[in-house]
Write a structure and sequence with these properties.
Layout: E1 3-4, E2 32-33, H1 34-47, E3 52-54, H2 59-65, E4 79-83, H3 87-97, E5 103-106, E6 110-114, E7 127-130
Parallel strand pairs: 5-7
Antiparallel strand pairs: 1-2, 3-4, 4-6, 5-6
């Protein structure tokens, strides 16, 4: 597993995504795990287009938008939120990712997926929740 921090290290295999989709919207920092990118591209190849609504968040930004504070899943580069367009789409995404991720959060307009483990400081994995 590699952390991608520079657009120059973006893999050509991730052809349906751009580094900008995974940057912090607050500070523009790029920090995303190659493992989650591989998973997302495989999902895209099988399911069709996926819209990323949130990926890496710096601790300051995460504190402002999430109850997980300055050290939540998105601050690790191992978590993303994917837009959900309707209930059938939500079920399709849940069915696809449920056995492939360690964290699965379900909301009306997005699903959260992550690849976090106790080694990352997240003892409560595997885990699933709703917002």
């Amino acid at each position: 597993m590699t952390m991608i921090r520079e657009p120059e290290t973006w893999h050509e295999d991730w052809c349906n995504f751009t580094p900008d989709e995974f940057r912090c919207s607050c500070c523009n920092r790029l920090e995303i795990s190659s493992d989650i990118m591989d998973l997302l591209q495989k999902a895209r190849n099988e399911l069709g287009p996926l819209t990323i609504t949130s990926a890496y968040r710096c601790p300051d930004h995460n504190s402002k938008v999430s109850s997980t504070g300055p050290s939540g899943p998105h601050t690790t580069g191992h978590a993303v939120d994917i837009h959900v367009s309707n209930s059938q789409h939500r079920k399709q995404l849940i069915d696809y990712f449920a056995t492939k991720v360690t964290g699965l959060g379900i909301a009306k307009t997005f699903i959260h997926i992550d690849l976090l483990t106790y080694e990352h400081g997240f003892e409560m994995r595997p885990n699933a929740w709703k917002y």
